[in-house]
UniProtKB/TrEMBL annotation:
It is an enzyme of class 3 (hydrolase). Catalyzes hydrolysis of the D-alanyl-D-alanine dipeptide. HAMAP family: A_A_dipeptidase. Pfam families: Peptidase_M15 (PF01427). This is D-alanyl-D-alanine dipeptidase. One of its GO terms (biological process) is proteolysis. The active site is at 162 (proton donor/acceptor). PANTHER family: D-ALANYL-D-ALANINE DIPEPTIDASE. GO terms for molecular function: D-Ala-D-Ala dipeptidase activity; metallopeptidase activity; zinc ion binding. Keywords: Cell wall biogenesis/degradation, Dipeptidase, Hydrolase, Metal-binding, Metalloprotease, Protease, Zinc. It comes from Paraburkholderia saeva.
Length: 188
């Protein structure tokens, strides 16, 4: 694997982030753990962009909480089998940018370590999860725009359907990274 395609471990100590990998718990849309161990990994360029996002969030007294990063194709299959809806789960034929190590699901924490109100929870596969869903309270719109600004300024882009999902532009041109190459991340 070349340096540009190397998965980097993301930890609170090395990246000054909070990590809550929900797919290693039963607190995800499937209701059961998908990963055996909670290892947060990103491809080298995504990891570099994360450093920028952390620094930008700090300028407004916020911290990032990561819900998911690299996701093996096998985990993507588990999610697709549970919810085969291309509006929310990447079509297996295209593959997920999570499985390329270039996508990250996250939110912002305030100075007290509390998640700011984004209107829906992570993995709420509803229309209200769209970035610019009309009718959400003003403070929710402001919070989503704050996260959007942090992540765009760091070099990530968003998808319409999930306020928590960001990825590097042009990621579809990269190959999927198989679970066997990632080492410590294993499926249940």
């Amino acid at each position: 694997m070349t340096e540009a395609h190397r998965l980097i471990h993301i930890t609170p100590e090395t990246h000054d982030v909070d990590i809550d990998l929900v797919y290693a718990t039963d607190r995800n849309l499937t209701g059961k753990p998908i990963y055996k161990a909670a290892h947060c990994l990103l491809l080298t360029p995504a990891e570099a962009a994360l450093h920028k996002a952390v620094a930008i969030a700090k300028t407004v007294g916020m911290k990032l909480r990561i819900f998911d990063a690299y996701r093996p194709p096998q985990a993507q299959q588990v999610l697709w089998d549970f919810l085969p809806d291309p509006n929310y789960i990447a079509d297996l034929g295209l593959g997920s940018n999570h499985s390329r190590g270039t996508a990250i699901d996250l939110t912002l924490l305030d100075a007290n370590g509390n998640e700011i109100d984004m209107g829906t929870g992570f993995d709420a596969m509803t229309i209200e999860s769209e970035h610019f869903h009309p009718g959400l309270p003003e403070h929710v719109q402001r919070n989503r725009l704050l996260l959007l600004g942090v992540m765009h300024a760091a070099g990530f882009t968003h998808i319409k359907s999930e306020w928590w999902h960001y990825e590097l532009p042009g990621s579809r041109s990269l190959r999927l990274i198989d679970n066997s190459e990632s080492g410590p991340l294993r499926l249940m």
